[in-house]
From TrEMBL:
Gene Ontology cellular component annotations, sorted alphabetically: plasma membrane
Predominant place of localization: membrane
Region (Disordered): 1-32
Residues annotated as domain Major facilitator superfamily (MFS) profile: 39-425
The keyword Membrane is assigned to this record: yes
Membrane topology of the entry: Multi-pass membrane protein
Pfam families for this protein: MFS_1 (PF07690)
Gene3D superfamilies recorded: MFS general substrate transporter like domains
Cell compartment(s), UniProt: Cell membrane
Protein name (record): MFS transporter
TM spans (from-to): 39-59, 71-94, 106-123, 129-150, 170-190, 202-223, 244-268, 280-301, 313-331, 337-359, 371-390, 402-421
Keyword terms, alphabetized: Cell membrane, Membrane, Transmembrane, Transmembrane helix, Transport
């Protein structure tokens, strides 16, 4: 899956070292102090959390939108699909361009798109406006994920030249996954206790996004823009990033792990409210946060495990979790459902962290943004396709039966990931 970008290679042919930690003393003297890059690392991480949290703010609010416009569970998956389409289009068209235009420029543009979406959310709760806002949110997220991840890698490398990439791997994936969990939690609490539930959460995040833009403006740039801008071309997906088998295995892991996260950011709040008869918006947000929070915590705890051990832990935990989740669904038992979700979240978080770390490490500096964009593209296909398929299936069967089929599909995917990993290891 590569995004073979001639532009990225041309832009960095003379300055590939400027994209990551400069090894030569002369290059180091020309850059801002390592301390400034260290502060920038944490600022970008905080902005990453905020932007990803904003993308999941509607999650506990979907039942309210359904009540407002009277649309079905299937329509919720359509709204979710529109968001995923925005992410995928953005990754294809712009996920890699920060390799030559600069990380900060892309991050600021992405935050601007999310701010526009926040204004739309505030303007009206009508379904057409909701769809437009979700599409624009997806466009912003697609631009931001690859650029922010690459920026964190480079800021870490300058701040700690020669150090282990563990801190980068933990922070970047925890910011991504943890942010997705904070959005529903904050939105659920604000909607439950402050009134105006379809406006207050977006107003809060609109302010946070503006603060985030200021933080990005204060961070050092890690890419030198070429004097002559390379010819633009959309991203093409390939596995040509130093370790073809490793890239394929990482992409498969990302696809499988984000499929579970897609389930919890689309249909689960409605399932908790209707099938499990717990309509609290705060509870819906808490359930989603518990899953994503467990994923982020697992990423931190397993940070120093070897790659093969992490993959084994991730596969086992996600497989066990989706099985327990299915049991909780059939028993209509919230505690069992929650245990299954948390366990699946742990596994998915570990798998996704391993995938990001592997791709960031194998890609050459001049193509790191495009390599990560390709990974996120495949991963977000998993985020979109399986939950949307679940929504389509719910039109001809009960949501409980559809969730059972979802479990089976995820187990098959995990078996495929395990086979790819085993084949890669035995092929060495």
């Amino acid at each position: 899956m590569s995004t073979s970008s001639v532009a990225g290679r041309t832009a960095h042919r003379a300055s590939a070292g400027s994209t990551t930690a400069p090894q030569e003393a002369g290059a180091a003297r020309e850059r801002p102090s390592a301390r400034r890059h260290g502060a920038g690392f944490w600022l970008v991480a905080a902005v990453f959390v905020t932007a990803m949290a904003f993308s999941t703010v509607p999650t506990p609010l979907y039942p309210l939108y359904q009540a407002h416009d009277g649309f079905s569970t299937f329509t919720v998956t359509v709204v979710f699909a529109v968001y995923a389409v925005g992410v995928l289009v953005s990754l294809l068209l712009a996920g890699h361009v920060s390799d030559w235009t600069g990380r900060k420029r892309i991050l600021l543009f992405a935050l601007g798109l999310e701010s526009v979406a926040a204004v739309l959310f505030l303007a009206s709760p009508a379904l057409p406006v909701l769809i437009a806002a979700r599409l624009i949110t997806g466009l912003g997220v697609g631009m931001l994920t690859a650029a922010a991840t690459a920026h964190l890698h480079e800021l870490h490398s300058v701040h700690r030249p020669g150090a282990s990439p563990v801190r980068f791997e933990v922070v970047s994936t925890a910011a991504n996954i943890g942010g997705l969990g904070f959005g529903p939690l904050i939105a659920g609490l604000l909607a439950e206790y402050l009134g105006a539930p379809l406006r207050v959460p977006y107003a809060v995040f609109a302010v946070l996004l503006l603060v985030g833009a200021l933080a990005v403006a204060l961070t050092p740039e890690t890419v030198e823009r070429p004097e002559v801008r390379p010819a633009y071309r959309p991203q093409r997906v390939s596995a040509d990033h130093g370790d073809r088998a490793g890239y394929v295995a990482a992409a498969a892991s990302g696809f499988a792990s984000l499929a579970v996260f897609g389930l919890f950011t689309s249909l689960v709040p409605g399932f908790v409210g209707h099938t499990l008869h717990h309509p609290s918006r705060a509870l819906a947000g808490l359930v989603v946060f518990a899953v994503f929070g467990a994923a982020a915590a697992a990423q931190v705890v397993t940070g120093r495990l070897g790659a093969r051990t992490r993959q084994t832990v991730g596969l086992a935990a996600q497989a066990a979790g989706v099985v327990v989740l299915a049991v909780g669904v059939h028993a209509a038992n919230l505690p069992v459902f929650l245990v299954g979700g948390i366990t699946a979240g742990v596994g998915a978080g570990v798998l996704f962290k391993s995938a990001v770390g592997a791709v960031a490490g194998m890609a050459e500096p001049a193509r790191r943004g495009e390599a990560l964009a390709g990974l996120f593209l495949i991963s977000y296909l998993g985020l979109a396709l399986l939950p949307v398929g679940l929504g389509v299936a719910s039109r001809s069967m009960s949501l409980t039966d559809a969730l059972t089929w979802f479990t089976g599909v995820v187990l098959v995917l995990l078996a495929a990931v395990a086979a790819l990993g085993r084949r890669r290891n035995t092929g060495r």
